[in-house]
């Protein structure tokens, strides 16, 4: 800055503003708020450039310099506000957006990696299949690799565990709702050894350790029989409730020599909550939400010896406590004594067809639940494999909506053979299945 300018006095606000590089209005504001060195002599302002320079250096050192001039249109006589104009996008703002996008992409990649890692971990560590071979139980992951093995004292019936659809003796899942797996195994010992030791339900942890065991055992009596243990386990079913505390385990077991079936309802720790005893073998079991309220009923299929015909029994697993048994039956010699009457949700009795002539009873040999239907197959003749069957389709109100023979020609042939033998005195006609459907009893 030149010597002449340094020694020249500034006598107007316009000159002072020009010297500082701001408007006269800004110079006035700095004089009021920041102590800009201005003298007033005889009604006019006077500023010494050297003092202004010193003030400016002090302001720069103390606070990074005077504030920038306001964004306004100014004159010596006053200030006219200018409309606020939003600043144009800056490089800094664009980089902020880029950074945000990169963070989201990185998070998505981490989540995808975590899901992939979890899936890979489950492939290696989660139980997928149980194989029984004699005394050995082998548990495999989804890759078919053995996770652990358990050896029993006696050999189990390996073939029985291959009939998973017919008789469910293995269950794998998260029993306690804690993200870990458990395995339930209903042991089945064949032959004379099975009649001596019966069966049991074992709960294994994910590492193969035994968490608990349940052995069905109770002596029951009918009018002319006494049935002490042991019992042979038939199947296991886990029924989910609305909460983990409502989860129930149902195990069906039959006496090794006589006809009673025990349905034991357990909590997830193997404690018995209730028992339902049925006079007849109940070999089939499933579950369904019949009333649409979010929890499943237990549905059993088999034989009612007291009625000499095939039956379904529907139980509410949350309402079973203590001991109970059906009392309503035609043949009371099969009635189980010393137990209160059961409160079943429903009992369905399927009528005997013409081709069941001469058989002591008919029985359910297949039971399957779909989204809104129950499919029930009833064996009418003697052979469980090639015998004549009648299929009933029921809705969830237990109303029969269809009745048919899976193999109509076999049914007609069996009917004609009984006609020829003199056992039946009427010809086969298409109204046979209409009669059966109308004769189904629901109580």
Average pLDDT figure = 86
Strand content range: 25-35%
The shape is: elongated
Summarize the amount of helix as a percent range: 10-25%
Largest sheet: 5 strands, mixed
The tally of domains stands at 3
Gyration radius over CA: 44 Å
Write a structural description.
- The protein is an alpha+beta fold and 443 residues long.
- It has three domains: 3-80, Orthogonal Bundle (Multidrug-efflux Transporter Regulator, Chain: A, Domain 2), CATH 1.10.1660; 166-348, no CATH class; 350-443, 2-Layer Sandwich (SHC Adaptor Protein).
- It has nine helices and 27 strands.
- It has a five-stranded mixed sheet with strand order 14-15-16-17-21. It has a five-stranded antiparallel sheet with strand order 18-19-20-22-27, with no helix packed on it. A four-stranded antiparallel sheet has the order 8-9-10-11, with no helix packed on it.
- A hairpin with a 2-residue loop joins strand 5 and strand 6.
- Helix 2 (13-20) crosses helix 3.
- Residues 1-6 and 71-88 have low confidence and may be disordered.
Protein topology:
Layout: H1 3-7, H2 13-20, H3 24-33, E1 39-41, E2 44-46, H4 49-63, E3 73-75, E4 78-80, H5 91-125, E5 129-133, E6 136-140, E7 146-151, H6 158-162, E8 170-173, E9 182-186, H7 191-197, E10 201-205, E11 210-214, E12 220-221, E13 226-227, E14 231-239, E15 248-255, E16 260-266, E17 272-279, E18 284-288, E19 297-304, E20 309-315, E21 322-324, E22 346-349, E23 363-369, E24 373-379, E25 389-395, E26 400-404, H8 408-421, H9 432-438, E27 441-442
Parallel strand pairs: 17-21
Antiparallel strand pairs: 1-2, 3-4, 5-6, 6-7, 8-9, 9-10, 10-11, 12-13, 14-15, 15-16, 16-17, 18-19, 19-20, 20-22, 22-27, 23-24, 24-25, 25-26
